[in-house]
Amino acid sequence: MSDLPLVSIVTPSFNQAYYLEKTICSVLEQNYPNLEYIIVDGGSTDGSVEIIKQYSDRIAWWVSEPDCGQTEAINKGFQHANGKIYAWLNSDDTYQPGAIREAVEFLQRNPQVVLVYGDAHYIDEKGMVIGDFPAAQTDLHRLRRGYVHIPQQASFFTAAGWKAVAPLDQSFYFAMDYDLWVRLAQIGPIVYHPRLWANFRLHQDAKTIAADERCWPEMLRVHYRDGGSRVAPIVWKSWLRKMAAPYIRWKRKKLFKQEKG
C-alpha cells in the first residue's frame, strides 16, 4: 500500500437518506486500500445521520451541521483532506467497481495531468441505467465555448491542482464544478479516459432536474469573468438551451411517469 497515493473522497449530503447508503457503499467497497472518506452532512433530519453512523468506523471524518449548501459542504470536506488525489461524489450518485484504482493508475502514468475523468451512466431512482452521459475530450478553449462533456461523478483531480485554485466559489449553486474545471484547465492538462467510472442519478429532487435553469447563467458568469465575448458560442448555446427548456422539461416529466408506471 505504501506506493499507492492516498485518495480523499468527499460526499456532501442533505436529506438524501433514500440514496445515501448506496453512495457510501460504492465508495467503501472500492478495491483501493489507501482511501480517506469524508462525509459532510448539512444537518439532515431524515435518518441520514443514523446511516452515516453505521459506517463511522470506516469514515475518516464526518459532520452533520447546518451549512450554506453543497458548495460550502465540499469546501469544508476538502479542508479535512490529506490525500494526493481528490474527488467528490454526491449523495445520490455512485461509483462503479474499480473506478478509484483505475483513476489513480492513470494519474500515476500521467503525472502532468491535473484532472482525469471517465464515463458515467445516467441511472434512475431505482438504480436502473437510463442513458449515458455524453463524455468527451475537452480543454480550456472548448470549456470556455460551452463544450463541457465532463461528468463530475467520474472526475478525479490532483490535490496540488485543487490547492492551486481552491476553494470552490460558494456564490455558485449549480456550476461550481464547471468553474473548477475551467480553473484547473488553466494550470494543466485535463484528460478524458474512456472507462466507466460512475453513475449519475436523475430523479425529480435532483438539482439537475429541479433547478437546471440556474446552470447556464452561472456558466456565463465564469465566461464573462474571464473576459469572454458576448457573441461567443457559449452565449449562443445558453440562448438555445433557454428556448428548448419547455420541451426538455416535458420530456423529463414524461420519462419519470414512464419509470413510475
Automatic annotation (TrEMBL):
- Keyword check for Ubl conjugation, yes or no: no
Provide the Glycosyltransferase 2-like domain boundaries.
8-129
Q: Which UniProt keywords apply?
A: Transferase
- A molecular function (GO) term: transferase activity
Q: Which domain of life is it from?
A: Bacteria
Pfam families in UniProt: Glycos_transf_2
Report the InterPro entries cross-referenced here: Glyco_trans_2-like (IPR001173), Nucleotide-diphossugar_trans (IPR029044)
What is the protein name stated in its UniProt record?
Putative glycosyltransferase
